[in-house]
Amino acid sequence: MVKMMTETTRLNLHAKSIENIEAIRCKINEIIKLYNTGKYPIKLLQFDMFVSMTMSDSFVLVKQYTAADQRWEEIFIAEQIYIKMNESLKKLIGFHKDGDRKSYWIKIMGSYVQNHKELLEEYDTIKKKLIQYAQNEELQCYIKSYRNYAIHGDEDLDSLKLFKEINEINIDYTFKLFTQWAEFLKSISAFISSCYKNEVEKLK
Prior knowledge:
about 200 residues
């Protein structure tokens, strides 16, 4: 059954998305300032920018959804949310049972914490949570199915079947999953802030 969010929820999400977009805009400006000093690790800044841009993109989609007044707009934006979740998870940790060695979290942050052992425990905690999330087959198949509908359509050109599937997108569930994913991104952003504090201490 398709569930529709209430008007109160829609208004609250709209206000919150504007607030988050503004906060991330300030964060991105701060990353540029840090880059211009030439004193911070470039890979750390690049990863922080990736996370910040991913969060900004996601909250822009939420804002667009809350302003939509046509069902097809809502469907399209919900699909874009699933695309963003799937593609960013692929970059962050991948879908290997131990995490992709080339993923940003393992390749960049894993390398960083080797020289900052005090951050290793928190790094490992986030890594385990990301892998557990990525290895939830039922959840990831659900997310990927809507990602594939949006990108590839139906391979057998059964557009009537495709329409039925996407028209039944559960909006409540979509935003429940998005909220869960946003919390992951926020925890990663907070971890990067801890890394910056370490860099400040080194500069003293």
